Each structure stands twice: as structure tokens, then as C-alpha cells.
Amino acid sequence: MNVKEYISSGVVESYVLGLLSEPEKQEFEAICAQYPEVLAARTAFELALEEQLMQDAIQPPSHLKQQVLERLSSPGQESKDVYEEDRAPVRRIGVWKWVAAASLLLLAGAAYLAFTANSRYENLRAENEGLRKQLNESSGQLAQLQSEVDALAKPGMKLASLKGTVIAPEAQVTIFWDTTSASKDVYLMVNNLPQPASDKQYQLWALLDGQPIDLGVFDTNLTQRRLMVKMKNVQNAQAFAITLEPKGGSVNPTLDSMYVMGSL
Amino acid sequence: MSTKVTYEEYELVAALRQKDDQAFSYLYDHYTAALHGVIKQIVGDAELANDVLQEAFVNIWRRIDTYDETKGRLFTWMLNIARNAAIDKTRSKGFQQSQRQLSITDGEMIQISVRPGIDDYGLKRMIHKLKDEQRLLIDLSYFQGYTHEQIATALHIPLGTVKTRIRSALTQLRALLS
């Protein structure tokens, strides 16, 4: 037997603290009787433990001693329990342990349910939020369309259909001009226009006596989402044209990039 | 006790075996605080600790003839009587019902907090220097009296591992003591 290894295995402390099973205890006692080093290690640990517990102790109330002495001198009050030092206490896992375990399980179950209910709630809330946003957007678009339709339906609304030029024969734009109102509002509806390069914008011009009047630039992605785009107004016009200009528009139209044109 | 008598341990044991009242009085005075401290750490409650301490001393007196000095020091023998009495008390029905709240919250679980007056002295103070897992194992086995088998089942650790870990924790405890 490797005595050193045995001594440092923790068996000595287990024995002294009463944590060994009955067979382990008997084995230890036999080895202790055989090997003085093991006995010395046991005594050393006992002394260290004793010293620690003696100096780090808590005095019980002083009246207790009298009670103990009285019990010792009155055999009628003998204790039924006899605590043997060599009987390792065996603790039963009592009913409360099971109740505790069951409670923990229940708690875990409840927590799980609460968690799933909460995440369902969160999902529904997010969904609801999304639907509300969608509804707001749709309502806005509907109102927009409604106002555009109302504008179209005005009695004095004039219409100019602009046809594609040689550079874009398929292009087509319709201009609505509210000639009866004082403001003479101009609306533009894109039927078909090629997507411009990102640094270019289409610009609408009114033509009066051969002179172009700037009516503003517009984005084709805007015209895709709306039926009509309101442009700058104009008091008098004989025709309308659209050119492709550098972003932001030009003072004078670039005539060789005219896409559509048409008169009233 | 007007005259202060001191004993060598073998003298004390011999006198106790003679049922010498003075020797018992000395034994009580000398060791009561140490045993009381350990008992209190096991049962927690001060009143219960006093009851258990009485039981323990009555049993020490009655069973002194069974003490075998070849198996260990007198203090070790008394300590084990006190510990067993305390653990038996915690197993009684009355204790389990009055303490069940405590045992659910901090008995079987790792004790995170140090209870003042209970965990801040003696062995408990020592084991608070160990790792959580080692502290739990010593708490369950020494202070709560569970067998290695019960601990293995409860913690889902193989029995051999429980034993090895408890012993390794105890060797560290010894290092802390010396």
C-alpha cells in the first residue's frame, strides 16, 4: 500500500468527520492499527479540527448546564434517543423534499407557460403593430387617390396627351390642367417613361409662343406610386413637353433629349 | 466550581468512566461551546441547538464506557455524537415542517449567503473558502447528513465521483485548518 497516497486521499478526514460507511470505517481502523503514519495523520487532523472548533466556538446560555446536570441526576427523565458516535446518520428524503421537488416542477411548468404566453402576446402585438402601419399607409394612399380622382373629375379639367418622340417612341404622359381654378394647377400622369439614369431627372415644360416655361422636375419612382403628380402651375400654355435634364433641372430645356410632347 | 481542575485527556476519560461529577462538569465547561457551535450550524435555530446540546451531553455521560481511545480522540467522539444528535433533530417531523421553507430555499441548494451567527465561524466559515461545488458536497454530507448515495442520486453525479470530490474537498479543508 502506498501510505502517502492513502493519507492524502481524504479518507483520514472522512473518518474523523464520520463520513465513511461502516465497511470503509473498519478498513480504515485496520490500516490505522497497522501503519503508524496513518494514525499520526489521523491524530494530526483531529487536533487541528479540535483546535479550530475550540477557538471558534459559541457559548450556549449559561442556564443550560444546570438543566443537563438535572437530567443526569434524575433517571426518570431519561432520553429515549441514544446517539451512538459510530452510527452514521442516514437521512431520509422526506415527503417535503418531494413536495419541494413537485413545487419546483410546477413552478418550472408555470414559468414555461408564462414564457410561451408572453412570447405569443409579443408576436401578436408586433403583428398588430404591423397591420396598423399598413392600414395607415393604405388609408393615406386611398385619400391621395381620392383627391386625385376628385381633381380629375373637375368640370374645367383640360387634358393633353404627350406622345413619345423619336428617341422614345413608346413614351407617353398625360397632363391635366385645371383651367377653371384661379391657381391653374397642373397634374402629370406617367403612362410610360423609360427609367432615367440616377443623375438625371425628367423636367416638364409648358410652351407658350415658342417659349418654354419650367413646370418642375419629377421622379419616376414617385409617379409609380401615385396616379398623378402635381407640378408647378401655369397661367397660359399651348403645349407641354418633357425633357431629360441633369438632376435638379435646367433653366432651358435640352431639346435633343425631349422625350414626349403634345398640345392641348 | 471553586477549584479549577485541569485534566490530561486520559485522566479525564478515566474520571468520566468513574462517573466523577467534577470531571463531567469540567468536560461540559471545556467543550460545550465547541459542540454547541457545530450543533447550531446543523440545526440553525438557537432553541433547537440548546435542546440538542443537552441531548448530546446526556449521551456523552451515559455512553462514556463505549468510548474507545484507539479509534480517536475524546473530542472527535463527542463531536460525532453531537453531530448525529443534531442531524437526527433535523430529520424529525416537527423540524422538517417548521424549517421546510428554509430547506427549500437554502438547505438543499447551494448556500450563497452567509447567515450571520451560523455560517461565519468554525467549519462553515472554513468551507466557505472552498469552491461552490465542494461547499455544497460538504454541506450535504457533513452538515445535512446525506449519504454519498443520496447525494449522487440528487445531483445526478456517479457515486464514485461524489466520493472522490468529497474527499478532495476534505483534503483542502485540512490544508485550511493547518
Question: Your description of this structure?
Answer:
The complex is a heterodimer of chains A (264) and B (178). Chain A is an alpha+beta fold and 264 residues long. Chain A contains seven helices and eight strands. Chain A has helices spanning 3-7, 11-16, 22-34, 36-55, 63-73, 95-152, 220-225, and strands at 157-164, 172-178, 186-192, 200-208, 211-218, 229-231, 239-246, 258-263. Chain A has an eight-stranded antiparallel sheet. Chain A is rod-shaped, with a radius of gyration of 50 Å. Chain B is globular, with a radius of gyration of 18 Å. Chains A and B meet through helix 2, helix 4, helix 5 and helix 6 of A and helix 2, helix 3, helix 4, helix 5 and helix 6 of B.
Q: What letter string, H or E per element, gives the SSE order of chain A?
A: HHHHHHEEEEEHEEE
Please give the number of β-strands of chain B.
0
**Unreliably modeled segments of chain A:** none
Structural class of chain B: mainly alpha
Can you summarize the main beta sheet of chain A? Answer: 8 strands, antiparallel
- The SSE order of chain B reads HHHHHHHHH
Strand content of chain B: under 5%
Unreliable runs of chain B, pLDDT <50, ≥5 residues? 100-112
Structural class of chain A: alpha+beta
Largest sheet of chain B: none
| Largest interface, counted by CB within 8 Å of the partner chain's CB | A-B, 60 and 75 residues
In short:
Chain A is α+β, with helices and mostly antiparallel strands and 264 residues long. Helix content of chain A is 45%, strand content 21%.
